[in-house]
Amino acid sequence: MDTDTADPAAVLDALDRRLVHALQVDGRAEPGRIAEVLGVSARTVTRRLGRLLGTGAVRVVRMPDAREAALGALLLRVRVLRGRVEAIALALAAQDGVPFVDVMLGGQEVSAVVLAEASARDRLLHGRLPATDAVLESTAHAVLHLFADASAWRCGALTAGQEAALAPPPAPAGPPPAPDALDHRLLDALGVDARRSHAALAAALQVPESTVRRRLHRLGAGGLLRTHVSVDPRLVGAAVDANLWLDVEPGRLAATGEALARHPQVHGVLATSGPSNLMAAVFCPDHAALYRFQTGVLGPLGVRRVETAIVARAVKRAGVRLRQLP
């Protein structure tokens, strides 16, 4: 299968999609464990994962702790001169504190998530963007509450039983132990490749492999080792990606956010500042499905107003520049 020339709607077959879903459940799952749950040979899983990960069609990265990610995060919308959107999108994607960048349909808006610390954020918002003649306007919305982020989305290729069999043990009650300096180095080493082997991590950090295994187990059990599968949604049957800016009655905001976080098409829900008080990012097979989502899902939830911003191209997701499909 040639992932560089195949039709995007048909690139990943049923088994490949099941493998993507398995990695979404546990980004560090061993091929043997995945094979056992899916009922295929470990050799097949190893070969398929090697191709998907080796070509860059699928990448597994570490996501920051959800509470840490939401604290001080901003949703940025930048209106750009026609013809200059690519340059602005790439400039934003080059920033370490900007893990998500999308070019919106129409070619005059770039959407981004900013997680930078205060001084870097202020330099971007009050210095670099206003000084760029290609930027017509920018608005920043503070994230007030995180209901769900990209790490919680599943592509729907596994049964509930298969997903449960692959799921790591639940984190124990109470706050996790504070990570020390070595824990932080280990987590950083998993940033752009969360499937690095124990041996590779041990060599990179110059510590015994047994230490790496023990530390990863403790970090995972404490809920600090969150992973995210970076994949073009078209490869798993989601041709339409949209950001829905919602106006919800304050008394229904929490219930609406929680309901949307549980919906299988939603890959992010956040309460925000600004004219809209909730933003939901959704994947749909086509525009008709997006319409059905608005009428069949948002309507009963009592959403008063919806602004629909469709993503034309995802440039960066979870800190990773995406490989572009033809």
UniProtKB/TrEMBL annotation:
Out of the domains of life, which is the source?
Bacteria
What are the protein's UniProt keywords? DNA-binding, Transcription, Transcription regulation
Q: Which InterPro entries match?
A: AsnC-type_HTH_dom, Dimeric_a/b-barrel, Tscrpt_reg_AsnC-like, Tscrpt_reg_AsnC/Lrp_C, WH-like_DNA-bd_sf, WH_DNA-bd_sf
Sequence ranges assigned to domain HTH asnC-type in this UniProt record = 179-239
Quote a single Gene Ontology cellular component term. cytosol
Q: Which PROSITE patterns match?
A: HTH_ASNC_2
Does the keyword Transcription feature in the UniProt annotation?
yes
Q: Does the keyword Transcription apply?
A: yes
Q: Which GO terms describe its biological process?
A: response to amino acid
> Which GO MF terms are attached to this record?
sequence-specific DNA binding
Q: What is this protein called?
A: DNA-binding Lrp family transcriptional regulator
> From which source organism is this entry?
Kitasatospora cineracea
Q: What is the lineage of its organism?
A: Bacteria, Bacillati, Actinomycetota, Actinomycetes, Kitasatosporales
